[in-house]
Amino acid sequence: MSSQNPVFIPGPTNMPEELRKACDIPTLDHRSPAFARLFKPAVAGVRRVLNLHGGEVFLLPTTGTGGWEAAISNTLSPGDTVLAARFGMFSHRWIDMCQRHRLHVEVLETPWGQGAPLARIEAALKADRDHQIKAVLATHNETATGVRSDIAGLRRAMDAAGHPALLLVDGVSSVGSMPFDMAGWGVDIAVAGSQKGFMLPAGLAILGVSDKALAAMAGARLPRTFFDFADQIRTNAAGGYPYTPPVGLIAGLARSIEMLEEEGLEAVYARHHRLAEGVRRAVAAWGMTPCAASPELYSETITAVVVPEGCNGTDLVQLAAKKYGVAFGVGLGEVAGKVFRIGHLGMLTEVMVLAGLATAEMCMADLGWPVRLGSGVAAAQDYYRSSAPAMALAA
Question: Which of 110, 183, 111 is nearest to 151 (CA)?
Fold first, then answer.
């Protein structure tokens, strides 16, 4: 696969040369003031991106999965009840993790292609009069299906039920690419990763933790060592770590946030919407549909394209990699073979997206799928031409 071709998977994402250089630093003493000068701006920047008021930011040397484990192990105890909807592979994996940690999970089975079922969650919380449910787990952006859930609406449902449960949110494929409002949405723990909207290599789980979640640590009895927030708090305050940190990634994160803020977060979100809408226009021109069941569920970072009857999405992904050196995402779990996934997040432009759409069309034609070459590309071009931001037009 050519290193010159952009990837169209939902992460790891394309890495700007500037961030590659920011991560490439000489060895330095991670217990020195030099490390603190890298670490503290990264933490402050994450706080701004998440809109976290109070609480703590933790940068853990792991991936999003490790971030999930840190979230539950620091706030819950064996036998605690948590509430979660299963509507995609990543919500499923979080449920599986909780079960392996001997938590009792009330699972709301939901069709893949739908988002978090707010009315059913509210009803379950209202029925829990003794407040046995200690946490509600939510996947903001379900990467397997290209579905965005309404976290603000989920907070309203929890408030309507008058329930004190913690709200733990997987924002791995949304934070840094789509609006995320910890304070406004009342999120208690948000989990993100370095390899998605932050455009870095995998290796950092990025967590925002509210004061309420920190208070829950006092009674939490799930075992934890490497992911213990208490150890992080004791050392992070001085710009240090309880163990050896990934210095290069933290340096890259600080620069990544500078780049996002130089573009402007609202402009970043608008760019992702524009790229995503162009992809959706292409999908419609192909005579296909997103896996997401309705427009309000559409993700701005990933589109899972439902393939025609008799076709296999995995065939397209494999052919694209072998023949054209381009990476798309395969379908996962219940939608394996039924979809292929186009990632459109991170370091991407309209021109790069058009290249991905053209490659997908060539693969469809090679496989004998019913597609007219150029149809999706033209639909995306029409949209991008009419929606170009004022700065691009001025240039």
Answer: 183
Does domain 17-261 match CATH 3.40.640.10?
A: yes
Residue 77 token pair: 């105890």
265-394 CATH choice from 3.40.50.300, 3.10.20.30, 3.90.1150.10, 3.60.110.10 = 3.90.1150.10
Where do the DSSP E strands lie in 130-196?
133-139, 141-142, 147-148, 166-170, 189-193
Across 61-145, the runs of DSSP E, i.e. the strands, are 81-86, 104-109, 133-139, 141-142
Report the C-alpha gap between 37 and 237 in whole angstroms. Answer: 12
CA-to-CA separations, 329 to 71, 305, 373, in angstroms, rounded: 27, 10, 21
Provide the pLDDT for residue 4.
84
Give the residue range(s) of CATH 3.90.1150.10 domains in the chain. Answer: 265-394
Q: In 3D, which of 139, 135, 132, 181 has the Cα closest to residue 158?
A: 135
Residue ranges of the chain that CATH labels 3.40.640.10: 17-261
Alpha carbon distance 289, 280 (integer Å): 8
pLDDT tens readout for residues 47-83:
999 999 999 999 999 999 999 999 999 999 999 999 9
The phi, psi pair for 240, rounded to 5°, reads -120, -175
Q: How far is CA 392 from CA 54, 119, 350, 384, 388, in A?
A: 37, 42, 11, 11, 6
* Whole-structure pTM value: 0.96
Question: How far is 210 from 5, CA to CA, in rounded Å?
Answer: 40
Contact indicator for 69, 97 with CB cutoff of 8 Å: yes
* pLDDT value of residue 376: 98
**pLDDT tens digits, residue range 136-168?**
999 999 999 999 999 999 999 999 999 999 999
- Contact of 181 with 152, CB cutoff 8 Å: yes
